[in-house]
Amino acid sequence: MAKLDESLLCDLPPFCLLERAQIREILEAAVSRRYEAGTSIFEEGAQADRFFLLLDGYLRVVRTTPGGDQIIVLHISPGQLFGIAPALQRETYPAASVAAVESLALSWPVRLWPEFTAKYPGFATESYKTVGQRLGQIQETLTEMATQAVEKRVACALLRMVNQSGRKTEAGIEIAFPITRQNISDMTGTTLHTVSRLLSAWQKAGIVESTRKHVTVTDPHALVLLSELDP
Amino acid sequence: MAKLDESLLCDLPPFCLLERAQIREILEAAVSRRYEAGTSIFEEGAQADRFFLLLDGYLRVVRTTPGGDQIIVLHISPGQLFGIAPALQRETYPAASVAAVESLALSWPVRLWPEFTAKYPGFATESYKTVGQRLGQIQETLTEMATQAVEKRVACALLRMVNQSGRKTEAGIEIAFPITRQNISDMTGTTLHTVSRLLSAWQKAGIVESTRKHVTVTDPHALVLLSELDP
DNA sequence: CCGCCAGTTTGTTCGAGAGCAAAGTCGGAC
DNA sequence: GTCCGACTTTGCTCTCGAACAAACTGGCGG
Q: Are A63 and A159 part of one and the same domain?
């Protein structure tokens, strides 16, 4: 249990309607923990006994197939709730959460969920809104995966990451967390080879720049065209 | 607004904890409507102003890409809530719902949702449970789509339909709603040609039987093997 | 009873992208 | 500085399944 400044929470959607005293209460009940890059916060299929809020860092939500292939379902940015399976009456987490960088998260035991939704106005509403957005996003990814060619899927994946956590730099917009070719291929259901070729081609075309583990989109508009156009 | 027997509702998860009087109240507020096969209950992107309960029939939940390709996200069986976007604070429905056969559904205006969850114990819990199940199912489909070859995806899709709405017959287990090769290809992101070839091969192998618009799985176990094994 | 059409089957061609192989390079540990 | 391992690049081959084409079939409406 850590002593945390309530200003961390009071701007976030699920908490922004609450009073200082309520926020303090919530913090009192929370456990705060640091996760090193690469470590997992919880595993796929594990007992869903807590729910979480990411304060700092970035997470990947990952599913692994029996065959050992894995795919990245989505990324979590600071300020977002995650591991909210228990809010949906799930016994287990449907996917694992892995820290992409050193990260900091709060968590509460599941039994507090009903209390939170009952006691704090707007908490339930805002949380379910998050669920709705994720559901929509996953449906979108699914359609994309089912209908689009590899090139478009990769373009869409980059755009999604840029939109969710792009940082403006001199060169363009940089994805805020480290990401390998392998990671991108795990988001798009392709191979790191293909991703590497695509990024090389786009770099030559002046659309992206990339170094090890980092990608900057220099011409977002061109990427949008790639993700939409047919030929 | 139709006069409906409350016994229709009282066994369903969202309502099973309620008293007769409450169920009657809920029915009073509902609009009941019949939909012909092929018609849509609501369109993708439409204002999400009502939520629904399928009483009879089967629905496909469909997303369409800008390019005109469409994919079937999931099927809805009698007794399930659908179009519950509003419960997740969405302004619009993220996908369309189309009747696969002549169907009957109840619906209520969105403004009753908060009332229902507040007034009827277990309603919110059970509804969000449904959301959780769908989220899990879609994630599963997504991983499948991203990692598995066409043959396995089709096998999985058949198994999912059989599990959700299989009917025992002399020959095996029949999928309870009409389904074309095209439909199956829309669930698996392939073409009707490929699905046709697969079904033919499986029929020859004694695993399935199929006529126009109908599929019966005669050897479910063999299909499970196909959906799991590697070689 | 016939004709039509939606749905299905089957053949053939062809290209995207997976799989395999190998070499290059950057960054951190020591 | 130098070594090592994780990440990346690039070339080549080969297969799966999409795309195109065309014929067939069964059911429904007139």
A: no
